[in-house]
């Protein structure tokens, strides 16, 4: 199969990444609804809906802000501004969603941790979205630097590049498996989601070193800075994890 994969159905070229992106949202939400029915939710329905709204608003804003900060370009015409508005990144969406949830919980006075139910649907959604990223090849900025490593692939520009989307698919599958194992150990409420965020943002921090980023601050990309901010946010959980493993 040649990349980018650009199927034509009934005379129309299909944006496969966009199709899988919408599919990721739909399947991810249906998986969340399925899990919520099977588990006792400590948060009442009206508060859960407020939390979802906060997550959605935070994710929308965060994904756009970080998408801009990946490669800051200032424009003056309306078309370029609209194109810029469509630039987004999952990293900003995740951290923005986290902040949106915390703000929503403050407003409604909810004290219970709310992230565990979202953990596996988020992983599934990202997984489906990354399939779209891979099929889009160099049309999406999810490809890696050129490489002579055996995993190098032609993603559309006739150069051997790190297929970062494939690396992430493998990582997400492994992470899903291990978090499922941890879930069976009756972790304290909220800890499963924290482990997911710590694992995913750590992975993305290191994978950024093999991406052709063009905007850096202090030698690291804006995404890597966000990763460090997220890990700092969860520093207590990380320290407790190290103490637990050392004892």
Automatic annotation (TrEMBL):
Cellular component GO terms, alphabetically? plasma membrane
Q: Which UniProt keywords apply?
A: Cell membrane, Membrane, Transferase, Transmembrane, Transmembrane helix
Q: Which residues cross the membrane?
A: 14-33, 45-65, 85-105, 117-137, 162-179, 191-207, 213-234
Question: Would you identify the family this protein belongs to, as annotated?
Answer: Belongs to the Lgt family.
A biological process from GO:
lipoprotein biosynthetic process
Pfam families the record matches: LGT
MF term (GO), any: phosphatidylglycerol-prolipoprotein diacylglyceryl transferase activity
Please state what the protein is called.
Diacylglyceryl transferase
Q: From which domain of life does this come?
A: Bacteria
């Amino acid at each position: 199969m040649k990349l980018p994969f650009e199927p034509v159905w009934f005379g129309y070229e299909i944006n496969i990444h966009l199709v899988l992106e919408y599919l990721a949202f739909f399947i991810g939400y249906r998986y969340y609804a399925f899990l919520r029915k099977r588990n006792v939710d400590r948060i009442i329905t009206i508060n859960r809906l407020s939390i979802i709204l906060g997550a959605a608003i935070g994710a929308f804003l965060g994904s756009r802000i970080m998408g801009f900060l990946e490669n800051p370009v200032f424009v003056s015409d309306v078309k370029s501004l609209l194109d810029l508005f469509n630039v987004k990144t999952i990293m900003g969406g995740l951290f923005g969603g986290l902040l949106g949830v915390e703000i929503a919980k403050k407003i409604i006075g909810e004290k219970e941790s709310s992230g565990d139910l979202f953990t596996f649907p988020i992983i599934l959604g990202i997984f489906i979205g990354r399939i779209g990223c891979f099929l889009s090849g160099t049309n999406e900025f999810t490809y890696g630097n050129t490489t002579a490593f055996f995993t190098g692939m032609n993603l559309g520009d006739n150069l051997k590049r790190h297929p970062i989307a494939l690396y992430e698919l493998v990582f997400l599958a492994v992470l899903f498996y291990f978090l499922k194992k941890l879930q069976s150990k009756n972790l304290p409420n909220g800890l499963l989601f924290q482990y997911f965020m710590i694992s995913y943002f750590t992975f993305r921090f290191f994978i950024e070193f093999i991406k052709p980023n063009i905007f850096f601050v202090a030698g690291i990309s804006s995404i890597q800075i966000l990763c460090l901010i997220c890990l700092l946010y969860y520093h207590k959980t990380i320290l407790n994890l190290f103490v637990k493993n050392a004892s």
